[in-house]
Amino acid sequence: MPDVDVLIVGAGPVGLTARALLDRWGVRTVLVEKHSELSPFPRSRLLNVRSMEIFRQLGIDRRVAARAFAPEYGRVRFRDSFTEPDFASAAMIGVNAPIAESPVLGAVTSQDRLEPTLLDAADSPIRFGVELAGLAEEPDGVLASFGDGTSVRARYVLAADGANSTARELLGIGTVGPGALGLTTTVMFEADLRQRCADAPAGVYVTAFGSILPMYPEGGWAWIGQVPEGADHREPLSRTLGDGLPFEVSRVQRWTVNAFVAEHFRQGRVLLAGDAAHAIPPAGGLGMNTGIADVHNLCWKLAGVVQGWARPGLLDTYEAERLPVAHLTLRQAVANAQLLIQAQQKRVEQLAGDDAGGEIELPWSEHYFAQLGLVLGVAYGSEAGEPGTDYVPSTSPGHRLPHVDLGGGRSTLDAVGEWFTLFVEDPAAAGWAELAPSGPLPVRVERLSGGYGTLLVRPDGHIGARWDKRVLGADELLRAQETISAAGLV
Ligand SMILES: Cc1cc2nc3c(=O)[nH]c(=O)nc-3n(C[C@H](O)[C@H](O)[C@H](O)COP(=O)(O)OP(=O)(O)OC[C@H]3O[C@@H](n4cnc5c(N)ncnc54)[C@H](O)[C@@H]3O)c2cc1C
Questions:
Q1: Which of 328, 343, 375 represents a domain boundary (last residue)?
Q2: Average confidence (pLDDT) over 148-172
C-alpha cells in the first residue's frame, strides 16, 4: 500500500501551492525539499492577477497582498538612470489598478515573502533537507528514494523541483527551446532611495545598464543586470543609480536565465510542474505564475483519480492542456525581452535627435507587455485557439469562467471550488437543487443571469461544458460530468 497519495518534490512556489490545493481536497501528501529551509532569495517579483485568483480560492489572497507592495508599484519605469526622469513608463495591467475582468489585483512582491504564506496554507507534512534521488514505478504507485536513505511509496509524484529538475533527469525527459540564455547577476543592496521611489513608485526601474527593484515595502533594493565574468558589479550598479548615490552591497547572486519546455509533462505516475516543466525568461514575470496555473490545472485531476471519481486518463489532459500554454508563454517572454530592448533603442534614437526631454511612445504603453490575453485568456481544448494580447471574456468550453459580480462582493469565481459548479439562469424553475448530489463529484448550483447560457464549470474555474438551453435533463448533466471527469472537457 502506498504511504501517501501524492509525493510533492520541491518547496518552491509551485510545490507549495500544490500542497495547499491538494490539502483542500483531502488528498494525503508529503512534500520533500532538499534545502533545510525555504529559499531566502527574493527572485520572482510579479504575482499576476490569475495567480491571485487562485490564491483567493485558497483563501490566502489578502494575506499575500498584505505583505506585498501597494498597487501603485505596479508600474515599469524606463530611465537613463534611476535618478533621472522617466522617458517611458507602462502600467502592469491587473496590478496597478482594479480591472473589470477580475475580482482581485495582482501584486508586486518577492518570493521570499510569498512562500512562507503558502507554507502556512496547509498542515500536511513537509520534510526539509530531504533530496529526491531515485524513482521506481511499481504496479500501484511509485517508490521514491531519497539521499538520506529513506523512501516513500506514493500513488503519484508531483515534481515541482525547479529548472534543474532531478525528476525530469531521472525519467530521461528532454527539453526543447534555446536552453541556457546566459548568466544574470542580482545584487542586493541598501541605499537611501525610499523617498525617490515613493515619489514615482514602480516595481522595476529599467535602464540600459540594468534594472533597480525595490525588494520589500519596508526597504531593501536589488539591481539585476549582466556582469561579465571577473568584472566588478559595483560599476554597472553605480551607473544604473546615477548621481553618485551611495550604496552598500549585502549579497550577490549569479543565476542562469533558462528558456525551455520539457518534451513531456508526464511519464507514468510522475507529473512535472513549474520550472521543472518549463523555464521562462523573466521579462514580463510569467515564469512562476505559469507554474502556479499548472498545479491549479493538475491538482483537481489528481484528487479525482486518487479519490476514484475521475478516470486515470484525465491525467493525460494535464500535458495536453498545459504544454501548449508553456510554449505560448515562452514565446511571449521572448517578445517581452525584445520590447525592452526596443525601448532602449528608441531612447538612443531620441537622444541622437533634438527631443531628448520628451516621453517615448511605447507600442504597449499602459498595457504592460500587453499580455492580459495570456494571463486570463488561456483556453484549453483543440478549438481554443491562441489568446490575443487583450483579454476577451468567453464562455466557450476550455476558457476561464469570466468574472461576473453576483452581488454582495461575490464573484462567479467565488462559486468555484472542490466541486463542479453549474451556473443556470433560474435554478428554482429547473429543479436543479435535486440534481446536485447525483454525479461523480457533487455539483453546486448557482444563479447566473444575463444570457450566459447553462455552464458546467470545473474545479479549476475553466468551463467544462456549455448549453444554450436553460433546462437540462438529469442524465445530460450526469453524462457531461462523466465526460469532464474522463477527458477534461465535453
Ligand atoms: C535569482 C533568480 C531570480 C529570478 N527572478 C525572476 C523574476 O524576476 N521573474 C520571474 O518570473 N522569475 C524569476 N525567477 C524564476 C522563478 O524564481 C521561478 O520561475 C520559480 O521559482 C519557479 O517555481 P518552482 O516552484 O517551479 O521552482 P523553484 O522555485 O525552483 O523550486 C524548486 C524547489 O525544488 C527543490 N529541489 C530541487 N531538486 C530537488 C530534489 N532532488 N529533491 C528535493 N527538492 C529539490 C529546490 O531546492 C527548490 O526549493 C528567478 C529565479 C532565480 C533563481
A1: 328
A2: 98
Q: What CATH number is associated with residue 445?
A: 3.40.30.120
pLDDT of amino acid 439: 64
Burial 31-45 (b: 16+ CB within 10 A, else e): bbbbeeebeeebbbb
The answer, yes or no, to whether any atom of ligand 1 lies below 6 A from the CB of 32, is: yes
288 lines ligand 1 (CB under 6 A): yes
8-state DSSP, 309? S
Residue 91 domain-assigned? no
Contact, 150 vs 188, CB < 8 A? no
In terms of DSSP bridges, do strands 175-190 and 248-262 run parallel, antiparallel, or are they unpaired? antiparallel
Atom of ligand 1 nearest to the CA of 45: 8
Verify whether ligand 1 is closer than 6 Å to residue 33 (CB atom): yes
- Counting every residue, how long is the chain? 490
Residues 299, 174 share a domain? yes
Q: Write the DSSP symbol of residue 471.
A: -
Q: Determine if ligand 1 sits within 6 Å of the CB of residue 160.
A: yes
Tell me which residue range forms the domain holding 282: 4-69+109-178+259-328
Ligand 1: distance of its center to the CA of 36 in Å?
15
Q: What is the pLDDT of residues 258-273, one digit of tens each?
A: 999 999 999 999 999 9
- To 10 degrees, what angle do helices 13-25 and 287-307 make? 30
Q: Is residue 199 part of a domain?
A: no
pLDDT beyond 90 at 342: no
Distance of CA 198 to the CA centre of its chain: 28
Give distance in angstroms: CA of 9 to centre of ligand 1: 12
Q: What is the pLDDT of residue 163?
A: 96
Whole-angstrom distance between the N-terminal and C-terminal Cα of the chain? 34
Tens-digit pLDDT profile for residues 388-415: 888 999 999 999 999 999 999 999 999 9
Q: Cell 508600474: give the residue.
A: 75
137 within some domain: yes
pLDDT in tens, 377-395: 999 997 777 888 889 999 9
Q: Are residue 9 and residue 156 in the same domain, yes or no?
A: yes
Cβ contacts of residue 477 below 8 Å, gap of 6+? 422, 435, 438, 439, 443, 456
Query: What is the helix (H) or strand (E) element at residue 89, kind and residue range?
Result: strand 86-91
- Lowest pLDDT segment from 104-108, 252-256, 372-376, 435-439: 435-439
Where residue 437 falls among pLDDT bands split at 50, 70, 90?
low
Domain count, the chain: 2
Ligand 1 centroid distance, CA of 13 (Å):
8
Tell me if 204 is assigned to some domain.
no
CB neighbour class for 335 (10 Å; exposed up to 12, middle 13-18, buried from 19): middle
**Same domain? 309 vs 412:** no
Which of the listed residues 328, 353, 387 is the one where a domain comes to its end? Answer: 328
